[in-house]
């Protein structure tokens, strides 16, 4: 069986290599893409959309449908992770607590607990939980910078590489850093599950809603030019702001979905103990 | 595009890819996959598509590695085959 698999992989690899010979050379000025599509974007995108970064204007305006359904795919991925993994029933496990001032570990059997507001005891995971003062302090110091960088990437998507998707991933990663350096419960206090679900749907809603708003104002779906009738600006500028609006939608959706996928995988859907 | 740099990065991509499918330790496989994504990100950056490189660095090398490590943490660290 393994040999058949290897032969099939080698054959399809050889076919792919054979097919690449028909591709135009890298940066060939006579290839179809460089003769019809690219010049149109390169010459017109700045005057039509007022966005200096060509990639952002293509992603969010000329190819706005693609990006909208990419966001929907991300949302569907988060939703399917939730449906497959989330377990609402608590596992009947013993709890472990650490006495903060002496470092003694308490193993509590049965359904007894120490209230979470306790100043003397902190709950620790069943797996080995070391003292990690350096990691916690560095993480606490680092997270604001990561989040500001994510917002910068979002806001500067018009001028420089970046945009809603990358910014959202970085912002979601900052919460994952909290969940790894502290524990999962600390991250979930800061970013509640209900808010997570609401935000991931809200992001897609902002994107599709902006498109529907253009439809209501008399234009085509996702034709941001129509926003100029309600915003005090000319149509070209309205396109730039429409692109920013959908990027914010992508940002919110991606951020929430990244955290929800991580939490559901790492805690087997029980949302109590994690990495 | 610098040919020497290109050849070095491409070789590292292939080495990472072969190592990632042949290694028995799944945690090591996840890390190798992250390294593979990072090399791909360098390759995109060398080709001049900085937006794609940025996405690859944040999603491929960053978050998906964390997802793999989380999945390994909840399943098993050694492969069956």
Q: How is this structure best described in words?
A:
The complex is a heterodimer of chains A (275) and B (81). Chain A is mainly α. Chain A has a domain at 49-90 and 130-266. Chain A is 62% helix and 5% strand. Chain A has a three-stranded antiparallel sheet with strand order 2-1-3, with no helix packed on it. Chain A is globular. Chain B has 81 residues and is mostly helical. Chain B has one domain. Chain B has three helices and no strands. Chain B has helices spanning 3-22, 26-47, 50-74. The longest helix of chain B is centred in the last third of the chain and has 25 residues, at 50-74. The N and C termini of chain B lie far apart (40 Å). The chains are: A mainly alpha (275), B mainly alpha (81). Chain A binds chain B through residues 26, 53, 55-56, 153, 161-163, 165-166, 169-170, 172-173, 176, 180, 258, 261-262, 265-266, 268, 274-275, and chain B through 47, 50-51, 53-55, 58-59, 62-63, 66-67, 69-71, 73-74.
Helix and strand arrangement:
The complex is a heterodimer of chains A (275) and B (81).
Chain A: H1 2-19, H2 32-49, H3 54-62, H4 64-85, E1 95-99, E2 105-108, E3 121-124, H5 133-155, H6 164-181, H7 184-190, H8 193-216, H9 235-266
Antiparallel strand pairs in A: 1-2, 1-3
Helix pairs in contact in A: 2-3, 3-4, 3-9, 4-8, 4-9, 5-6, 6-7, 6-9, 8-9
Chain B: H1 3-22, H2 26-47, H3 50-74
Helix pairs in contact in B: 1-2, 2-3
Q: Strand fraction band of chain A?
A: under 5%
Q: Which oligomerization state do the chains in this entry correspond to?
A: heterodimer
Order of helices and strands of chain A: HHHHEEEHHHHH
Strand content of chain B: under 5%
Q: Specify the structural class of chain B.
A: mainly alpha
**What value does the average pLDDT of chain A take?**
89
Low-confidence stretches of chain B: none
Structural class of chain A: mainly alpha
Which term fits the overall shape of chain A? Answer: globular
Rg of chain A, alpha carbons? 25 Å
The main β sheet of chain A shows up as: 3 strands, antiparallel
Summarize the amount of helix of chain B as a percent range. Answer: over 70%
The average pLDDT score of chain B comes to: 91
Number of domains of chain B: 1
Spatial strand order of the main sheet of chain A: 2-1-3
């Amino acid at each position: 069986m393994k040999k058949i698999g290897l032969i099939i992989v080698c054959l399809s690899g050889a076919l792919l290599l054979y097919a690449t010979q028909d591709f135009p050379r890298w940066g060939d000025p006579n290839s179809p893409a460089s003769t019809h599509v690219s010049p149109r974007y390169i010459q017109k995108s700045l005057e039509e959309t007022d966005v200096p970064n060509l990639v952002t204007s293509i992603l969010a305006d000329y190819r706005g449908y693609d990006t909208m359904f990419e966001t929907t795919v991300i949302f569907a991925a988060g939703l399917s992770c939730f449906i497959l993994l989330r377990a609402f029933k608590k596992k009947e496990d013993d709890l472990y607590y650490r006495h903060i001032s002496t470092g003694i570990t308490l193993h509590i059997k049965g359904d007894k607990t120490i209230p979470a507001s306790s100043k003397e005891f902190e709950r620790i995971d069943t797996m080995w939980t070391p003292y990690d003062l350096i990691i916690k302090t560095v993480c606490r110091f680092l997270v604001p910078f990561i989040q500001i960088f994510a917002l910068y990437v979002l806001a500067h998507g018009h001028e420089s590489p970046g945009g809603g998707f990358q910014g959202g991933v970085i912002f979601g990663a900052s919460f994952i850093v909290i969940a790894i350096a502290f524990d999962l419960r600390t991250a979930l206090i800061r970013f509640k599950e209900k808010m997570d679900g609401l935000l991931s749907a809200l992001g897609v809603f902002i994107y599709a809603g902006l498109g529907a708003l253009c439809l209501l104002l008399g234009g085509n779906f996702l034709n941001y030019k129509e926003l100029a009738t309600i915003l005090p600006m000319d149509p070209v500028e309205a396109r730039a702001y429409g692109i920013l609006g959908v990027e914010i939608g992508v940002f919110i959706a991606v951020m929430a979905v990244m955290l929800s996928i991580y939490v559901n995988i790492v805690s087997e859907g029980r949302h109590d103990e994690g990495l | 595009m610098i040919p020497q740099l290109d050849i070095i990065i491409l070789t590292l991509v292939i080495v990472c890819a072969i190592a990632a499918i042949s290694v028995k330790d799944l945690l090591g496989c996840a890390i190798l996959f992250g390294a593979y994504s990072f090399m791909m990100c360098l390759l995109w950056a060398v080709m001049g598509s900085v937006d794609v490189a940025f996405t690859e660095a944040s999603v491929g090398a960053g978050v998906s590695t964390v997802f793999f490590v989380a999945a390994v943490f909840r399943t098993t660290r050694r492969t069956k085959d």
